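Supplementary Methods. Inverse-folding protocol.

Structures were first reduced to a discrete structure-token string of length 137. This string, shown here, constituted the complete conditioning input.
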């Protein structure tokens, strides 16, 4: 229960940060992808996120045998770049560019009850369901 509350609080802080950074506004995301009217705001958010994550990753991982609320750290081990990965990345990127939302800001934007945000999140859920159906072994 405490772990879920911590995760919820972290999610709320993350959503507030996305809102403050302007990442819940699709025009900022689309502006980052537009080479004719480039807006670097998203780049600064990504660089900041990478800096925070990598700092904690390299400080925490060597000191803990396992995570506080889990059996083991979930670190990808595959280095294979195959057709499925490339096609998935293209679909993800196209959806991001068309909708102007990446997953985190789309979820944070649900609080506004924006039709666009609701459509993007519904589309993400459908995509996740399709992926789960077609990837069963």
């Amino acid at each position: 229960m405490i772990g879920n509350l911590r995760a919820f609080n972290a999610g709320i802080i993350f959503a507030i940060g996305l809102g403050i950074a302007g990442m819940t506004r699709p025009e900022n995301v689309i502006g980052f992808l537009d080479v004719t009217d480039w807006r670097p705001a998203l780049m600064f958010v990504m660089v900041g996120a990478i800096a925070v994550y990598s700092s904690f990753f390299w400080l925490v991982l060597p000191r803990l045998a396992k995570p506080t609320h889990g059996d083991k750290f979930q670190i990808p081990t595959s280095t294979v770049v195959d057709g499925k990965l490339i096609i998935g990345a293209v679909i993800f990127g196209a959806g991001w560019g068309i909708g102007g939302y990446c997953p985190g800001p789309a979820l944070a934007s649900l609080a506004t009850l924006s039709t666009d945000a609701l459509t993007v999140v519904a589309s993400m859920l459908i995509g996740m369901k399709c992926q789960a159906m077609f990837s069963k072994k």
